[in-house]
Amino acid sequence: MKKRICILGSTGSIGTQALEVIEEHSDLYEAYVLTAYNNAELLIQQARKFEPEAVVIAKESNYNIVREALADLPIKVYTGAAALCQVVQDDNVDIVLASMVGFAGLEPTIAAIKSKKVIALANKETLVVAGDLITRLANENQVPILPVDSEHSAIFQCLEPGNRIEKILLTCSGGPFRNMSKELLKSVTKADALAHPTWNMGAKITIDSATLMNKGFEVIEAKWLFGVKPEQIQVLIHPQSVIHSAVQFEDGAVKAQLGVPDMRLPIQYAFSYPRRLKASFDRLDFFKMKELTFDEPDLNRFHCLALAYEALHQGGNMPCIVNAANEIANRAFIDDKIGFEQIGEIIEKTMGKVSFTTDSSLDTYLQTDKEARAFASTLI
Q1: How does the average pLDDT of the chain come out, rounded?
Q2: What is the pLDDT of residue 196?
Q3: Are 84 and 112 in contact (CB under 8 A)?
Q4: Which of 33, 46, 63, 320 sits between 20 and 30 A of 10, alpha carbons compared?
């Protein structure tokens, strides 16, 4: 039987590529539920093409637009944040692709875990904000969390049962400003930051990649996914984006996963695990690779990465504080309200202001997120 997939965030970069994977393997997979926050137009197009059982448009003011556009099809249309938590619990859903952006993906992912769905995780903020809670719930419910981020998928593919990890080598393209001086970083524009040299992604994650906060979040995510200590995670600037990440074992051997920069590969592997499926993606041509280079990230120039490491070392709700402040600052930069360098400044000030706790309950994370957003907003 086909695996029925619920895509949380079907109109985003990961969601649209996931639908390409489903279309290529329509004999194996079915888009059973599609959800979007605001992009009613694309959600309607996707629904008419894939004819899922249900769709959710989280922004309630767009509900009638979607409902009327799909009135001639037997597709259930829901709206609101609560509906996202409800659809993932459908008994017919086999896999939930958590590809919503930011903190909003936390509660639907928790609902999916409690309903014992396989989680294909592209929403790294879920583990950044509530890694302790999420991993505990996944263990209690015996739910696999399969990473979709290209770096974490690479690490996952390199793991060998029974062999201990000495170090995780987490690669990073370095973004558009990897060679730029700290002085010049003060004057970069939104257009500059959105011009990622390797990956085609949504605006929020592209800005996070420019500040290296995205890599900081991936460091935190790696800690929870693979059960390692912060000092066992080393970030490598690798502009060619050919080595997606690697694992160094306790005997010194290093195992890496290589490939062209194409998110459909880790998406497909999360869907098909432990099998590998034939795919139409481009193949890596070793004769065209003239060099593979690696550099150490400059934590002085890219302060956001340093702040993420600091939050990971502090633990508790500090990563949640960092995520909330980053979402506020990232949005403000996109809206031309602050400069590029102010993103890190707002995050650091918020870390020093919001109440710290080691409690790992959902209520704590919800309250922390609310408090951190409120304070960060006062700095805009």
Answers
A1: 95
A2: 73
A3: no
A4: 320
